[in-house]
Amino acid sequence: MYRAKKSTKWNFNLKNISSFEKHIDKSVPFYKNCHFIFLSLSDFFIQKNSRIIDLGCSSGNYLSKLYDKNKFDISLAFEGYDAVPEMIKFCKKKYNKKKINFFKKDVVNINFKNSSLISSFYTIQFIKQSKRQKLINRIYNGLNKNGAFFLLKKFYQKILKHKICSLKYITNLKLKMVFHQPMF
Ligand SMILES: C[S@@+](CC[C@H](N)C(=O)[O-])C[C@H]1O[C@@H](n2cnc3c(N)ncnc32)[C@H](O)[C@@H]1O
């Protein structure tokens, strides 16, 4: 599934995390639109009494929107994971009124049992290549039947000689390619 020769090193060092959202919105084309699409699709997969997990949640933007959409279902558990302590601190403070749990943890070490929705937006490229397939397998095995894994990933496609924003969702039953967006 992942064949790029090198993994991208994460060296994002923000003094002010609030500026992260502006930064990513400018640098990733259709950033908000992609969140919107995946928010709409989420309704088809979220199941009662299950976990909703966002990997590499950064400033908690997407997870917070998912929470707002489903906050009346108290059987759901919302969990955001990020490796950068400042991001988690920021999320805990910003969303302290929302029932979302944020954890400082490497995404490769998470137990995904009883999840109906797992998302990973622009984060997989920071995971060591040798660990990516294992992570995807763990996600697949942890997902409930008819749950889904939403993946957004930037990659460089040599044949087309431009970057592509790949928007995919993967369920236990099938993998669907929603669209490819060229990025220049
Ligand atoms: C480009 S940002 C993700 C943006 C976010 N998903 C969104 O849609 O706004 C990548 C995030 O992945 C986190 N990250 C990178 N490697 C990680 C790892 N191994 N475990 C957990 N988080 C990681 C970084 O700290 C960073 O916050």
Question: What attributes characterize this protein structure?
Answer:
184 residues, alpha/beta, Rossmann fold, 5 helices, globular, disordered N terminus, disordered C terminus, binds S-adenosylmethionine
Bound compounds, please?
Answer: S-adenosylmethionine
Strand order in the largest sheet? 3-2-1-4-5-6-7
Query: What name does CATH use for the topology?
Result: Rossmann fold
CATH class wording: Alpha Beta
Structural class: alpha/beta
Q: Helical segment tally?
A: 5
The strand count comes to 7
Q: Helix share of residues?
A: 25-40%
CATH superfamily grouping: Vaccinia Virus protein VP39
Describe the protein in words.
- A seven-stranded mixed beta sheet has the order 3-2-1-4-5-6-7.
- The longest helix is centred in the last third of the chain and has 14 residues, at 129-142.
- Helix 4 links the parallel strand 2 and strand 3 (100-104).
- It has one domain: Vaccinia Virus protein VP39 (Rossmann fold), CATH 3.40.50.150.
- It has five helices and seven strands, in the order H-H-E-H-E-H-E-E-H-E-E-E.
- Residues 1-5, 158-167 and 171-184 have low confidence and may be disordered.
- The chain has helices at 18-27, 31-42, 61-70, 85-94, 129-142, and strands spanning 51-55, 77-82, 100-104, 115-121, 143-157, 162-171, 175-183.
- It is globular, with a radius of gyration of 16 Å.
- It has 184 residues and is of the alpha/beta class.
- It starts with 17 loop residues before the first helix and ends with a strand.
- The structure holds S-adenosylmethionine.
- Residues 10, 24, 56-58, 61-62, 81-84, 87, 106-107, 121-123, 126-127 line the site of S-adenosylmethionine.
